[in-house]
Amino acid sequence: MHATSAEPLARDTEHRSRADARHDLIFRLLLRCCALIVLAALLGAALSTLWGGRDILFKDGLHFLFSSEWNPVEDKYGALAPIVGTLTTSLIALVIAVPISFGIALFLTEIAPNWMRGPVATAIELLAAIPSIIYGMWGLFIFAPFMASIEPWMNDTLGNIPLIGQLFQGPPLGLGLLTAGIVLAVMILPFISSVMREVFRTVPARLKESSYALGSTTWEVVWDIVLPYTRSAVIGGIFLGLGRALGETMAVTFVLGNSYNITASLLMPGTSISSSIANEFNEAVGLHRSALIALGFLLFVVTFIVLLIARLMLRQLARKEGR
Amino acid sequence: MLTSIKSPSRLGALAIALAASMFGLTAQATDITGAGSSFVYPVISKWSAAYAEKTGNHINYQSIGSGGGIAQIKAGTVDFGASDMPLKPEDLAKFGLGQFPDVIGGIVPAFNVAGVAPGALVLDGTTLADIYLGKITTWNDPAIVKLNPSVHLPSSRITVVHRSDGSGTSFNFTDYLSKVSPEWQSKVGEGTAVQWPAGIGGKGNEGVSAYIKQIPNSIGYVEYAYALKNNIGYAKMKNAAGTVVEPNTASFQAAANTADWKNAKDFNLLMTNAPGAQAWPITATSWVIMYKTPKNAANTKVAFDFFKFAYSSGQEAARSLDYVPLPDSLVQQIQAYWTSEYKQ
Q1: Which residues lie across from A60 on neighbouring strands?
Q2: Does B286 touch chain A (CB under 8 A)?
Q3: Residue A4, pLDDT above cutoff 60
Q4: Which of A4, A287, B302, B344 has the smallest set of CB atoms within 10 Å of its CB?
Q5: Using an 8 Å Cβ cutoff, are B195 and A271 in contact?
Q6: Is B67 in the A-facing interface, judged by CB distances under 8 Å?
Q7: Are A280 and B199 a contacting pair at CB < 8 A?
Q8: CA distances from A110 to A182, A203, A255 (A)
Q9: Which Gene3D superfamilies match (chain A) (predicted)?
Q10: Mean pLDDT (whole number) for A24-43
Q11: Beta strand pairing call for B31-36 and B58-62
Q12: Residue ranges of the alpha helices (H) in B190-341?
């Protein structure tokens, strides 16, 4: 090659690589901006709720967290009942939704015939697209009367079991923590099961086939091969569902009974953080409004703690395996 | 944009409509804004439609809740606010505001007890307060039986239903209970949201009535118009004079007539437990709140004209929505208040 023609080529390459570097830089900055926007939004929301709730937090401090009184007439507010209600309903939802989602995901990836997998998976994703107000209406007009009809039976049977019996004793209203928890379970089911289904499909076929070849049953393959392989993603999916359950507002407001109670019975009405805010924000002024905004901040805190626990759990599991 | 319309006749029509609306609006029409109480929202929208037809002026009312209405008028972002609870005269004076009632409505105890026909049940204030305090827990409690000797009442447990959202309806209801029951007053008090000693909360009139319909042996309270529309059985009440009255236009108006408006500065008076022989004990109104020295004179003038129109020509519209127009004596008092208090 002639030196004269090689030079522009080198210059060209240099030019190209400089341009590439510049593009890379811009791209990197752009991506960083995207990530920062999320962080800024989160921080902004947390700080502005903290700022809005400063009146009650300064006035009552920790007492606000541990008081179960909610009395707008005397301007006394405590967040305990909404926090307990939020955690209880979300826990009920998880207890019901996780095993069922696991079953659905397993069925769709391991057992169902091929022609069935697509339509059922689509149906589950459609369930996720139903607005929460529709779940609320369904809960109020169809599911709550059904619960009211079976609650006397619950009182007589489950209510007599020692230790947990108290959970199932109460008036047969059809509304309350249990009903809200079950409605929430239906709502988060599609989220958890579609995540599980996706990750179960990523398990390499040779792992499963090797296990089958060694004589494992389907259950053994799932429990010893599929689940360990996908564990962190499965837990991630569960917490995605939990996040939705913690913050769900409308559907819960419809069926929870909206009363500032802390009781041992799941059949009694309760309240949750988000439904308290939705109910009372319109007419709240002064300290009342501040207390509601502070509740919003507490929802952040509760969610954050729950996610933290999830992280710690994952780490603990990883350590146990010696990874 | 106009070029996309092909047909010349349509273009002509559009031009005429445009010209008409432009000249019509710029010539004299004013848009005034109001915000607040959701209780009056249906009747204000009906009035404003009729008013717009007559004068071309539009009333843009947002039902954001009484608290919001008060905040907005104080901030001066609207021409009038509407609230289900009156402001105290000293608060009004501090901000240079005045207030006056606009329309009357009733709140009725609604119930769902198998075998008891709608309207067959009679309650009085103290009994209602004791039910809501959780002291009376069954339908065949002696206090209820005494008021209803001829009604067969079951021994079932009463499920109490209240509003879960802050509302003027709750405010008037709890104000009534406070007036008739010292225990209620000391333990619970009155407010748009209170610490309910018993029961479950439904969101809005629709939430409460849905709960009442679904839960056997329940009792709640809803706006009269709402109970009528949804065919919910409501109870009669024994009023302050000791008469058993039915909720209807006549008994609401009787309450408005016999309430002591003459001595109420700035109409700061709740009509609950009104003394009249035929007065419905849980009668409510809402108040329009406006600046005495208008921030926007032209708009305020239209607002006054609108309420004048509502008091005179709006009566039929109010009745059709099961609200009750203000009695004439009260309207006269309000108009005297306008001339004496407001710089128009």
Answers
A1: none
A2: no
A3: no
A4: A4
A5: no
A6: yes
A7: no
A8: 27, 11, 36
A9: MetI-like (1.10.3720.10)
A10: 93
A11: parallel
A12: 204-214, 224-229, 249-258, 297-312, 315-320, 328-341
